[in-house]
Amino acid sequence: MGKRVDIKTGFLCNNNCRFCVQAHKKKFGNRPTKDIVNDLKKARKTGCTGVVFTGGEVSIRKDFFELLTYAKKLQFMTIQVQTNARRFSYMDFSKKAVNAGMNEFGPAIHGHIPELHDYLTRSPGSFKQTYQAIKNIRKLDIYTVTNTVVVKPNYRHLPEMAQMLVDLGVNQFQLAFPHPIANAHKNFDQMVPCVSLAAPYIHKGLQVGISSGLKVMAEAMPYCVMKGYEKYVSELYIPQGEIRDINAVTLNWEKVRKEEGKMKFSQCKKCRYDLICEGPWKEYPEKRGSLEFRPVEGKKITKILN
Ligand code: SF4
């Protein structure tokens, strides 16, 4: 897998998710085109062959198609757009994005019914648009990998959610345990589920996808809460990469994520997954403690076999 750059194009968004991890940056608005073009050029120089445009919401930018065209001109092989997908509900818009260079689509969808998704995005009508967008993009045969943030209001519905994604014909889906910063920190008690309560529903959701032949993953779920589903832990597959943000460049995201983002515990030393596990996002045990993370017995392993 090639090296990948995630470019945060700015922080304005037409949704307002209750668990948004970028909410505190909204005041910075969107970044100028020239800064993003510079990021693209620099990322090519450091050897990135894939780019992920993320935000905020990149598709509401006036220069959206221009940025895609530029990435294509620089010969990025994978050009993914992470998006709430609402603008892609218009087929003309979807076609234009594909023609400009988008060859991977990364929509975020957080509920299997409008009442749930729209409650979480605080944007009436957003489910209908995101759902239509996925249909449009699949009609154009673009690889589609969805992301669903697992929160208190939706975790019991993950199997239905997964079935909806199968029926929509997505290629891959990810269920992501929330990173409790920004809105997810502010609304922690309403949004962040107990990892041990959410885990069985995450497993059932993954199983729906697996049984239908989809590629599936769960993010920020340590191995001790993924019994039987260890090989679906996202961190095993996150490509090597860098993050280019408004005032910061992280050239080794894996290192920063492990050393500053995640947390391990004294009991981890006795766990068979200790050498490969990143642990949960550190803000979770800071709020709820570490008792849910029980070491798994056995000889220490250095890789998960498929
Ligand atoms: S190392 Fe710690 S967090 Fe990771 S699986 Fe083992 S007990 Fe859980």
Architecture overview:
With 306 residues, this protein is of the alpha/beta class. It has one domain (3-260): TIM Barrel, CATH 3.20.20. 35% of the residues lie in helices and 15% in strands. It is built from eleven helices and nine strands. It has helices at residues 33-45, 64-73, 91-100, 114-121, 126-139, 158-168, 182-186, 188-191, 195-211, 253-261, 283-288, and strands at 3-8, 48-54, 78-83, 104-107, 143-149, 172-176, 215-219, 241-244, 249-250. A nine-stranded mixed β-sheet has the order 7-6-5-4-3-2-1-8-9. Helix 1 links the parallel strand 1 and strand 2. Helix 6 (158-168) runs parallel beside helix 9 (195-211). The longest helix has 17 residues, at 195-211. The chain starts with a strand and ends in an 18-residue tail after the last helix. The model has no long low-confidence stretch (mean pLDDT 96). The protein binds iron/sulfur cluster. Iron/sulfur cluster (SF4) binds at residues 222-224, 264-265, 267-268, 271, 273-274, 277, 279, 293, 295-296.
